[in-house]
């Protein structure tokens, strides 16, 4: 039987996260629902699984960097999958951008410190940068969270025999 690598575990973890996201969306759960944290629990479990199951081949491989690398391989794959999912999902649902623009327009009107022309220009800019902002927040969020989880898991599990 072939051993699952950290990359494979990243593929499994990312796929489960995407599946959970789709289930939550099509079940009609609000984006701020506490159930959404299940996605982050899956992410954490996948990284911890990668680090926990790492067995150094030699004593010299029982170092922090070797353990962290296992988590790194997992969270890089997950990040890539989640970024691709974010792009595809938002391209399939252009209404998200429109809804965000309407909410932003209402917010700008409520503040009352911009002219109608300035409001329209701000909304156009927001529409142009909507997807890049989502992608960048997904990339940085998953990378930072993955690095922290890998760091903590590596420190915990490298001491075990």
Search tags:
161 residues; mainly alpha
Structure in words:
The chain is mostly helical and 161 residues long. Helices cover 78% and strands 0% of the residues. It has helices at residues 6-26, 37-52, 64-92, 95-111, 116-157. α4 (95-111) crosses α5 (116-157). It is elongated, with a radius of gyration of 20 Å. The two termini are 24 Å apart.
The chain-level mean pLDDT equals 90
Largest sheet: none
The low-confidence parts are none
Portion of residues in helices? over 70%
Secondary structure tally, helices: 5
Order of helices and strands: HHHHH
Global outline = elongated
* N→C terminal distance: 24 Å
Percent strand: under 5%
- Calculate Rg over CA atoms: 20 Å
- Strands, count: 0
- The secondary structure category is mainly alpha
Please give a quick description of this structure:
The chain is built from five helices and no strands. With 161 residues, the chain is mainly α.
Compile the SSE list and pairings.
Layout: H1 6-26, H2 37-52, H3 64-92, H4 95-111, H5 116-157
Helix pairs in contact: 1-2, 1-3, 2-3, 2-5, 3-5, 4-5
